[in-house]
Amino acid sequence: MFILGAVVLRLILPLLLAFTFASPGFQPVAAAPGETMQVEISGVGARPIRAEVPTTRVGAVRYASAGKLAAAFTYRTWANTPARKLTLYLPEHEVVLTAGSPFVLLKPRTGSAAATVQQLPLPVTVGADSADLTVPVEAFVGLLNTVFDGSLRYDAGANRLSAALSRFDVTDLTAEVKRNGTLIRVKAARPLKEYQGWTTEGGWVYLTLVGVKGDLERLRRWTPPAPIRRVRVEQFPGSLQLAFQLPTNPQSTDFSRATDGNDVLITLVTPADVQSISLDETRRREEEARQQREQARWKLDTIVLDAGHGGKDPGAIGPGGTHEADVTLAIVRRLGPLLESKLGVKVVYTRQDNRFIDLYERGQIGNRAKGKLFIS
Q1: Which of 102, 226, 228, 284 gets the highest tally of CB atoms within 10 A of its CB?
Q2: What value does the mean pLDDT of the chain take?
Q3: Beta strands in 99-166 (DSSP E)
Q4: Given a cut of 80, is residue 279 above it in pLDDT?
Q5: 269 sits in which H/E element
Q6: The pTM is what?
């Protein structure tokens, strides 16, 4: 019964949360005329970038347009209007907002780090534009500070947001090694306008980024994976140059902009080990087949309902003479058809009338039926 209670709670809890957060009490009131948040962004040029973002209020809490806030920082956004979701693409993370929910999903855009969920004190709401969402400013700024490349400070009294971006344009390097080559990602804090790449004898691959300043200390600390042997980083007055040495010259080299952010990608194609690739593919298929067998083995296709007591064991007896054994039997008789019709599973009963069944025999009934869930 505890298992069933947990399952039911997981099913209805999101509905309760959605109902609560979508109630009229959580909708923003109309913005006062001319009420805007001043945004000042430094660290991207000789002069700070200034923008204005409209704000509204929910009681004493100030909300701001998430879409217009992203536009102030030139971050791309994607609106899934039917699902009432808005995704902000920061340089390092995706920030996913959902209308009516206080939960914010933070997804790293590269690497193997897992996504995390943060909670705002109040839910996200739908803005004046149905494709835009609004967020509680002060709490959202605090959340963004955990993934922002720089620092954010919000002055609630003046309704002003100050942002200081990282003073470096290129902050890090990563590499992903495959059987037939290597993908190097040059991580950039802003869009890079001009770059040039080439190869030379000795397995050297060069990338020059014009008008770019790099975090030399961090870039030079990077330990490249094999087959990259060495990395050289040089900062010149008007450019940053990166050089990577391989055992041999790659078959082909491609320099491109990443479609998911500001980064520059270097694709190095090397001769493929066909035998190893074939072996890996065989192992992958075998593993997929094993996982499918395990999934089929544990598919929830049979539920065993055990009406407690029965026969010579009436269980607890109520003030009016009601036997617990009769109550449990009535419950499973009603629950069984519901499970069959709603979940499409097979339902097995340990008893369907007023008879006594030993505990060990109840377990045997469930095992013989290959029951995946036993509810007593």
Answers
A1: 228
A2: 83
A3: 103-108, 116-119, 125-126, 133-136, 150-155, 160-165
A4: no
A5: strand 264-269
A6: 0.45
